Amino acid sequence: MATRKIELTAGKRESLTLDQLAAFIDDARRSGASGDEAVAATVTFGGKLRGVSIGVKQGPAARSETG
């Protein structure tokens, strides 16, 4: 079974906004994320969110598990 990587990265010298993070979550859910996948994040030294990614299982078995 293949895994699709969904990722979002802020522009240079920027950090992610709440709206951008919400859109990322919506995209992940539409792509088949069930909600129990681990999220990887890149954070600045100042604690700002620079990027997020998630691996979503793809294929017939993954779709039947999520209902």
Q: Helix tally?
A: 2
**pLDDT < 50 stretches:** none
Q: What amount of the residues lies in strands?
A: 25-35%
Rg (CA only): 13 Å
Structural class: alpha+beta
Mean pLDDT reading: 88
N-to-C series of helices and strands: EHEEH
- Percent helix, as a range, is 25-40%
Describe the structure in your own words.
This protein is an alpha+beta fold and 67 residues long. It has one domain (3-66). Helices cover 30% and strands 31% of the residues. The chain is built from 2 helices and 3 strands; from the N terminus they run βαββα. The protein has a 3-stranded antiparallel sheet with strand order 1-3-2, covered by helices on one side. The two termini are 17 Å apart. The model has no long low-confidence stretch (mean pLDDT 88).
Summary of the model, kept short:
This protein is an alpha+beta fold and 67 residues long.
Provide tags for this entry.
67 residues, 3 strands, alpha+beta, elongated
How do the helices and strands line up, and which of them pair or pack?
Elements: E1 3-9, H1 18-30, E2 39-43, E3 49-57, H2 60-66
Antiparallel strand pairs: 1-3, 2-3
